[in-house]
Design a protein that fits this description.
By secondary structure, the protein is α/β, with parallel strands linked by helices. It has a domain of 182 residues: Vaccinia Virus protein VP39 (Rossmann fold, 3-Layer(aba) Sandwich). The chain contains ten helices and nine strands. Helix 4 links the parallel strand 2 and strand 3.
Length: 274
């Protein structure tokens, strides 16, 4: 579990992503790249799933890729934000559309042992308790089912985090779980043969405000429980911009993202329950 002082407020998450639905795709360059790379990890998996959940599907970019990859599977987009699902509904064709499910990843309205595959790209960072989320994935997966995900590691947005730390002590950047902690959580939830991998990706900006604008456009500026809320003053923003300047190289400002990939199977003999 993450630091209990940093608890994700899912009501705010839903509201932020609903608001961002119309601007998400324009700003989600990194999200599309990560989703594409995550699904490439499935290339060696010799499996033709009948049912696939894309949990945290957003506007449905990954759903479209899954529908092309698994042409006979029932693909369902799962997301907490109804407005995101309205965008995901546009995926597919006249004769084959994805299923849509507005639900919390920790409380899926599905029967036990009902899903062959779960994929989740950049959603798990919104879980305050990874084990609880993984246990719910385990509940709905069939024995022999596969879980594939991508999430953010602790070095994500390290430049922005450090810049804010010089200005105030508030938590302006979410905390992210270490790759090894994620793998350990999978094992405690009885997932078999977890394979973890990581890579660093970097976006560049001319100004800090451009980065902040992108984060807002994709709904990623959501506050956690306990974070102070309110408008940012011009003085505070100027201080953050000044602090961030130490990272400028070749005329641009980097924004680092640590991407953690995970793949695991639900063993045929896995014990159900907590």
């Amino acid at each position: 579990m993450l630091n209990p002082s940093f608890v994700i407020n899912k009501r705010w998450v839903r509201r932020a992503f609903d608001k961002a639905a119309s601007t998400y795709d324009e700003a989600a360059v990194l999200q599309r790249e990560v989703c594409t790379r995550m699904l490439e990890h499935l290339d060696p998996v010799k499996m033709e799933p009948g049912t696939v959940l894309d949990i945290g599907a957003g506007t449905g970019f990954g759903v479209g890729l899954l529908m092309r990859r698994y042409k006979k599977a029932r693909i369902t987009a799962v997301d907490l934000a109804p407005e995101m699902l309205k965008m995901a509904a546009k995926q597919g064709s006249l004769f084959r559309k994805p299923g849509l499910m507005c639900a919390d990843a920790d409380h899926l309205p599905l029967a036990d042992n009902s899903v062959d595959m779960i994929v989740s790209s950049l959603m798990l960072q919104w879980s305050s308790d990874l084990e609880r989320t993984f246990r719910e994935f385990k509940r709905v997966l069939k024995p022999g089912g596969v879980l594939m995900f991508a999430t953010f590691g602790p070095d994500t947005l390290i430049e922005l985090r450090n810049s804010w730390a010089k200005v105030d002590g508030d938590g302006h950047v979410n905390q992210f779980a270490d790759m090894h902690d994620v793998g350990d959580a999978l094992q405690r939830c009885q997932f078999a043969d977890p394979v973890m991998d990581r890579e660093m990706l970097t976006l560049t900006y001319s100004k800090v405000t451009d980065l902040m604008r992108d984060l807002k456009a994709i709904g990623a500026n959501t506050p956690s429980t306990g974070r102070r809320k309110g408008l940012m003053t011009s003085k505070t923003l100027s201080a953050v911009e000044q602090a961030y300047e130490q990272y400028r190289q070749n005329g641009v400002l980097p924004a680092s993202y640590e991407i953690v990939y995970g793949q695991a199977w639900l063993a045929e003999t896995a014990t159900r329950g907590e």
